[in-house]
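Re: the multi-chain job from yesterday

Posting the exact lines I submitted so nobody has to dig through the queue logs.
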Amino acid sequence: MGFTSSNQHLLSKIATSLGHGEDSPYFDGWKAYDKDPFNLTQNPNGVIQMGLAENPLCFDLIQEWIKKNPKASICTAEGVDEFKDIAIFQDYHGLPEFRNAVAKFMGRARGGRVTFDPDRIVMSGGATGANELIAFCLADPGDAFLVPSPYYPAFDRDLRWRTGVQLVPVPCHSSNDFKITKAALETAYEKAQESNIKVKGLIITNPSNPLGTILDRETLRTLVSFINEKNIHLICDEIYAATVFTEPNFVSIAEILSEDIACNRDLIHIVYSLSKDMGLPGFRVGIVYSYNDEVVNCGRKMSSYGLVSTQTQHLIASMLLDEEFTESFITESAKRLATRHGVFTRGLAKVNIDCLNSNAGLFCWMDLRRLLKESTVEAELALWRLIIHEVKLNVSPGSSFHCSEPGWFRVCFANMDEETMEVALQRIHTFVHQKETVVPAKNKKLWRSNLRSLSFSSRRLGLDEVVLMSPHSPIPHSPLLRAKT
Amino acid sequence: MGFSLSDQHQLLSKIANNDGHGENSSYFDGWKAYDSNPFHPIQNPNGVIQMGLAENQLCFDLIQEWIKRNPKASICTAEGVGEFKDIAIFQDYHGLPDFRNAVANFMGRVRGGRVTFDPDRIVMSGGATGAHELISFCLADPGDAFLVPTPYYPGFDRDLRWRTGVQLLPVICESSNDFKITKAALEAAYEKAQEANIKVKGLLITNPSNPLGTTLDRETLKSLVSFINEKSIHLICDEIYAATVFSQPKFISISEIILEEDMECNPNLIHIVYSLSKDMGFPGFRVGIVYSYNDEVVKIARKMSSFGLVSTQTQHLIASMLLDDDFVESFIGESAKRLETRHKVFTWGLSQVGIGCLKSNAGLFVWMDLRRLLKESTVEAEMELWRAIIKDVKLNVSPGSSFHCLEPGWFRVCFANMDDETMEVALRRIRAFVFQGKEVEAPVKNKRWRNNLRLSFSLKFDEGVMTPRMMSPHSPIPHSPLVRART
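And the result, structure tokens for all chains:
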């Protein structure tokens, strides 16, 4: 037709920017998995996916509940009479029972120590949509949120891409187990001030992704004091709340608010979802819960862009209003996560691989610093490629989480069955043993030099900034393979 | 805590503080009236009848029947629960392949099989609401503008502008030529933008039209394509009412036009917005679709779809349903039939009392002409009449000014969101109102009728209505948010 294929000028700046975060070398891992996905029987030498934080451990419980509760569906013989009313309902307040159910569930996930007001529950397109929505409500283009690092890579897309908002990292260090310190907060805040960047809030993920740790009461109170003093918002992503599988108990920001603490509640907001706690990422159940009436009001109007399907609202409402079920689900899920975590960390410990001590999440924060040629991002990525191509595990390098210390890797342990976990551990053992004649923990030099002599990919990387990939991206398979447009 | 309202405002973004959401308008009177007094045939026979909601409730019997016969379409039935885990865990923004295939298949059938759609160009979004915002983010920068022929769906003001910062510039259409979109009007709007230094990035059309209920003819479509091609701007075609065409002329989709031999057009400029909310009557399921002929747009839109994917539970159900060709074929046929019947009943009932509507062959509403009933040809008079209709006739209809119609006196009235009996009640009320209880034949030219109508107008003025600010009849708030948002 004679039209040039270059249509860059036809698109918006947002469309042609890299704000979606997917143009990064980290796709090597996804590509490798896609090309050669592990299957216990059909492809036992394939790449095992350990970069996806999913929670499929309790689907048996859910399926059992579904069989026993046909009225939860609008498609069963028992439930189809409600089909029309549900299919037609498009009120952005959501089904009242849905809001009640979610509020109840959030309370139970916090051991009943706090209650949530159904009228503050606002829907969104998954936590992805929730984070974007809250950014649109609280910040103007050019404004910034502080975010402790390491952090979930997709925050870069969710909070920044279409909003024009910036993220300013608050670096945390292994020297104190990555705790968020007042000093680090103040430094980050001042740095922003000096650059004339207006800080509108602080966003924390608690329990943490990728660390798998929870914030202690003292830290939480420090954060609240900090934001209150600066009069900036506190956004708490509590998406992993029910994945806490061992002591210490989870302390939600909601509990801090109920304590004797001076705080403008208009500054406090919670982001939630059922993607991790219940293992239902496909259902896109995102929640914004704000203590600020204006934000609830505005957020509700914005929720029009990403409401939860009423078919799903209806199902979730039934399920989560069943208190016996939710009680036993939360408990059993925690048990199974604890078991899985134990098996994995012990397996790693056998070959002297440490993880950050954690009590939550669907992953471990694995310490491979000693295996790096040098303490650089390049060395970390080189090791990472080795792990993908030779150990055949897709894990996530710390740099993709903006970790300031090279050598950490996030490894997911819940998104596979036990046999696959065994295979993964076997491969790790084999890999480590292969490269050493003796395996004493202190024989660092020999072990390290053996690893060095292996085939590191020596491809240099043009890594100016640690551009993210999104391990949580809804693209378990490389988009480069699928987008055949 | 001692914080003032202005402190509050400072805490929030500019977007949060502006009224780009479009809900601060007096049009909520209608919603409020309905909410506080909703009609019910038995429990509240004197309540307000909702005729401001463009919903398609006519074919749920067919759907429910299909559901009963196809338990595997659900992941919650005994037959389907085996798939629950795989579906619940699937979060790939490409969507279930079956879903994309099914939607592409359905879109083709709705167009009588005259075109086919490529499943790989199907991108999901949070309803058509999300689709419009998404395409706006892809094609325009803040401050850029889209041209949009008036009258148009009020929700566009929010969907295309609110969080994107994009502007909408009206292309005026008039009743003198049945609201056709003329080249002159397009050029005038385009030049006006140029003079104001506003960069026009595209033209947005709704075909079939909301609120007119008409379809664009081949000539107009071709002239639109020439126009945007010449200016190298985008053409966004909202075809959300495609399957609601119930009589001649047949629907012509933009997808057909660009295939034509003599049609020179850069396909990179052509995009379709679609949804199952109107054609199938599933607004609650939030099935929005962006279909673009521009590969880059598909790629980027797909990444953006993360903010509003369709629940896989729903994708799975829709996939099964729309891959059933027999069902789809008969549904489309039967739905059109029932819409036609309903449309006939309603327009005939109106004509009996001398009320005319724009001749239409599609949509879930009629564009009712009450210009002769206005005290004067002004927006204020239209609002006054509207309040009378709500208060005295007890019907919630949508005033033309909320659709940015430049000629006062037109009203959009929905006819597919109620059962036959309620429709009858609505017509009876209109009759009663017009005749003031007297059973007199009212020939169209009877001035006395006009005087009678003028008498029973509520004289309640609300001078707060200066600008034809929109309400969103299609807003996902069938009940007034002012009643519900008790935060």
